[in-house]
Design brief:
This protein has a five-stranded mixed β-sheet with strand order 3-4-5-6-7, sandwiched between helices. Strands 1-2 form a two-stranded antiparallel ribbon. Helix 1 packs parallel to helix 9 and helix 8 runs antiparallel to helix 9. 24% of the residues are buried. It has 330 residues and is an alpha/beta fold. The chain is elongated. It has ten helices and seven strands. It is 65% helix and 9% strand.
């Protein structure tokens, strides 16, 4: 046995070496255990995020609602400052204004699209090589659509009127007597061909109004319903309870530890599920799935990074002590 002597008496160097070697091993073991604990925590977050994605995905992939893109474009063009979230707060009168303005533009987009695809719109069909082009300005006076020939020259102008008001049509004729009007069924039928400047589009004003009304009101009134359809906390809660309960049954956790871990996971899953449901409710569709997953993972990010950094620091300090001890032997 090798000993050294100082003012305190004899010191067993072999015992001291074993002690510090054991401390070094304990540091490595402690780091490993912390890292494994980090992976388990990260694993719980991944499990929770996957369950949230599956939960909201059920609603996303079963939502078969398909809205005519021309109608969505009409709503956006006539109400550019309006988004899905603001639809909740609009009064009935304001919603009616949204419907009426969007209906007229929707009618224009339908007519333009049909004519440019060679289809007949009521009394009008374009000759070969001709095309229809809507006015770029929302406030274009006198005409709404121009007919252009194969050389790019304007052949004719049309006003497009989605209305059931005969008085409105007559007033327009008085103001612009040289511009033809393509109107919805109701007013064209009232004229019974009595005015050669008014053409029937064979599109009903009532059907346009009903279609636009249904879409706008579904967006306004259905957003909260969509949120609660997508926000179903029972499945994530059931999975958390099942996974933590299984750990208890396998003897890998105490009941107290399982309850503590559940109390950590549950509120974070609820928050992430709420974020995904909100994205879905405001029209985010498929993007609500990664929104819920990323939120769940990010919530744990700081805590997990703090855990692993503390473990690395503790391991580094112990290794430094062991290195200093070894250097003192030489």
């Amino acid at each position: 046995m090798v000993t050294i002597e100082n003012s305190s008496g004899n010191i067993d160097l072999e015992s001291l070496r074993q002690k510090w070697s054991r401390n070094g091993q304990d540091g490595i073991r402690g780091f490993s255990e912390s890292f494994i604990r980090y992976l388990k925590i990260r694993g719980d977050a991944i499990v929770d995020a996957t369950v949230l994605a599956a939960n909201i995905g059920i609603e996303v992939f079963h939502d078969n609602t398909v809205v005519d893109p021309k109608l969505l474009k009409a709503i956006q063009m006539t109400n550019p400052e309006l988004d899905h979230t603001r639809l909740f707060s609009l009064s009935d009168e304001q919603l009616s204004g949204v419907v009426n303005s969007a209906k007229g533009k929707y009618f224009e987009l339908i007519v333009e699209d049909k004519l440019n695809h060679g289809e007949r719109v009521g009394d009008i069909v374009l000759p070969e090589g001709y095309s229809a082009k809507l006015a770029e300005s929302m406030t274009q006076p006198a005409w709404d659509l121009q007919i252009v020939d194969s050389h790019g020259d304007v052949s004719d102008y049309l006003q497009l009127k989605a209305t059931d008001s005969l008085g409105y049509i007559k007033d327009t004729l008085e103001r612009y007597p040289d511009i033809k009007i393509l109107a919805t069924d109701e007013v064209a039928n009232q004229l019974h061909g009595g005015n050669y400047m008014v053409f029937d589009s064979d599109i009903s004003n009532d059907s346009l109004t009903e279609h636009v009304h249904d879409v706008v009101h579904d967006e306004a009134e259905g957003a909260s319903e969509k949120f609660f359809d997508a926000f179903n906390p029972l499945i994530p809660l059931a999975v958390i309870a099942a996974t933590e309960g299984m750990m208890v049954l396998l003897g890998k956790k105490s009941i107290e530890a399982a309850i503590e871990r559940s109390s950590y996971r549950i509120p974070r899953s609820l928050v992430a599920g709420g974020v995904g449901a909100f994205v879905y409710a405001v029209g985010g569709g498929f993007f609500s799935i990664p929104a819920s997953m990323v939120t769940r993972l990010l919530i744990d990010r700081d805590r997990n990074l703090r855990t692993i950094s503390q473990s690395i620091l503790a391991h580094k300090n112990k290794l430094k002590l062991l290195r200093d001890y070894r250097q003192s032997l030489h």
